[in-house]
Amino acid sequence: MSTSVQSTPAATLDESTVIEFLSANPDFLINHSELLEVLEVSQGVKGATSLLERQVSVLRDKNKRIESQLEGLISAARSNEQIMKRLQHLTLELLRADSLDMLLSTCQDVLRNDFNADFVSFRLFHDKPGTDMPGLHFVRSNHAMMIAMRSLLDDIQPVCGPCPEEQLNFLFRENGSRIQSVALIPLQCNHSIGLLALGSLEAERFHSGVGTVFLSHLGELIATAIAQHLEH
After folding, report:
1. Residue 175 in this model has a pLDDT that exceeds 60
2. Could you report the per-residue pLDDT of 4-24, keeping only the tens digit for each?
3. The domain that contains 126 carries what CATH number?
4. Which InterPro entries does this entry report, sorted A to Z (predicted)?
5. Quick check: 37 pLDDT over 70?
6. What is the pTM of this model?
7. Which of 20, 42, 111, 143 is the most buried (most CB within 10 A)?
8. Is residue 175 part of a domain?
9. pLDDT band, residue 42 (cuts 50/70/90)
10. Residue 75: is its pLDDT beyond 80?
């Protein structure tokens, strides 16, 4: 009596099995490095290339991304360092000012020279009865333009972008028509003491996407210095 022997078909490996095996044995290709040169991966219109060449290409792209990120971090660090130096210079100049007029004049000079503001304007509240408003920087709190900007003053946060012509003329007088973008910085020290406006001849200098953290710090520093003189 003859006995027939049936052959067992070879086990079929699907992708998930291969992936599971390689995941469980991450050093497999290291131990069998000869496979790196014969395994091929698709490169689209460029045809096929060895897995080793593909890995080298991926590593190069990754290194380029890392280098780009590093350059961005270095650039940001340098920019922040410059900002800190400028703020330190402004702080020292404010400490040297022995009067409000000198302080405001110092602010205008430093903001123009160190922070590249084309125009600098202060509008400080002055509501003491029986006294005239001393100089061009003061305004009554019930002035129509200040009332129109009340929401900005109450919100405390700086705002950047274009500004209506009427407000530009109020803030920058004869230079209002030349200004393309502004940064409006509320001045707060326990209470609202007014507004600092920076004007630029460039439309993109102060746009709505500009970060306002630095401008907030600038406003707090200047408001604190001004408040010290207003209390005397």
Report:
1. yes
2. 444 444 456 788 888 888 888
3. 3.30.450.40
4. DUF484 (IPR007435), GAF-like_dom_sf (IPR029016)
5. no
6. 0.65
7. 111
8. yes
9. low
10. no
Concatenating the DSSP letter of every residue in 40-93 gives: EEE-GGG-EEEHHHHHHHHHHHHHHHHHHHHHHHHHHHHHHHHHHHHHHHHHHH
DSSP letter at 227 equals H
Q: What are phi and psi of 9, to 5 degrees?
A: -65, 145
3-state secondary structure of 132: coil
Q: Residue 50: what pLDDT?
A: 58
Question: 223-227, long-range: CB within 8 Å, 24+ apart, which pairs?
Answer: 223/187, 223/188, 223/189, 223/193, 224/189, 225/94, 225/97, 225/103, 226/100, 226/103, 226/104, 226/124, 226/187, 226/189, 226/193, 226/194, 227/189, 227/190, 227/193
Amino acid at the residue 45: V
Q: What is the pLDDT of residues 181-224, one digit of tens each?
A: 999 999 988 888 899 999 999 988 888 777 788 889 899 999 99
Identify the pLDDT of residue 135: 59
Q: List the domain range (segments joined by +) for residue 87.
A: 49-96
Q: Are 98 and 225 in contact (CB under 8 A)?
A: no
Which SS3 state, helix, strand or coil, does residue 122 take? Answer: strand
- How many domains does the chain fold into? 2
Give me the amino acid identity at 169. N
